[in-house]
């Protein structure tokens, strides 16, 4: 059993090492994009399904409260948080609209939509991207190898932080580390240092 645990650690390290050099410039670019929009009084909207919902919550919390530095909070909203709202939209409209309806209501031109997906091309994220573009918002997509539909929608000012792996757990681990790197860079750019 212990060897199985060690093997999981090795697989996690290998996935992160394989992604690091490819993702570093994209994470840096995403941090600059978010900082530019925050200083112009825009907000960040985040969403994802299942495990990716938890990643969206972690990123939102890190922006709204703090990452390492004690600092003023940044305007960030997690669209995956409100269960009663999500079930109401699903009931009265459709599951594919649970994020797009919120983006349409809360999103403003210049805001940033950050989506998280583990390679499953969810229709609700497809609709959210369409709505964000209609609202003149840019999109940062944390995606996996199977997210071809989501990737095809990203263009222009959008940034894709894509983990080319098929195991959703490895993808989520790389996404989590990427979130931490992103938060570190945002704090450095706005406050000139680390905790």
TrEMBL record:
Cited PANTHER family: DNAA INITIATOR-ASSOCIATING PROTEIN DIAA, SEDOHEPTULOSE 7-PHOSPHATE ISOMERASE / DNAA INITIATOR-ASSOCIATING FACTOR FOR REPLICATION INITIATION
Naturally occurring in which organism (per UniProt): Porticoccus litoralis
Domain of life, per lineage: Bacteria
Domain spans labelled SIS: 34-195
Protein name: SIS domain-containing protein
One Pfam family linked to the record: SIS_2
GO biological process, one term: carbohydrate derivative metabolic process
Molecular function GO labels: carbohydrate derivative binding
UniProt feature coiled coil, ranges: none
SUPFAM superfamilies reported for this sequence: SIS domain (SSF53697)
């Amino acid at each position: 059993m212990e060897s199985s645990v060690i093997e999981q650690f090795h697989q996690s390290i290998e996935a992160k090492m394989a992604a690091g050099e490819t993702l570093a410039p994209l994470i840096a670019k995403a941090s600059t994009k978010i900082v530019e929009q925050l200083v112009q009084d825009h907000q960040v909207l985040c969403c994802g399904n299942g495990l990716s919902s938890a990643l969206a919550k972690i990123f939102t919390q890190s922006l709204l409260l703090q990452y390492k530095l004690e600092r003023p909070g940044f305007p960030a909203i997690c669209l995956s948080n409100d269960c009663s709202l999500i079930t109401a939209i699903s009931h009265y409209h459709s599951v594919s609209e649970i994020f797009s309806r919120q983006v349409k209501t809360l999103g403003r031109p210049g805001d940033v939509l950050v989506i998280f997906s583990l390679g499953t091309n969810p229709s609700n994220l497809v609709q959210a991207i369409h709505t964000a573009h209609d609202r003149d918002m840019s999109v940062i997509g944390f995606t996996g190898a199977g997210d071809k539909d989501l990737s095809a929608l990203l263009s222009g000012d959008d940034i894709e932080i894509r983990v080319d792996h098929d195991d959703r757990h490895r993808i989520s681990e790389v996404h989590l580390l990427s979130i931490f790197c992103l938060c570190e860079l945002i704090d450095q750019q706005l406050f000139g240092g680390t905790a």
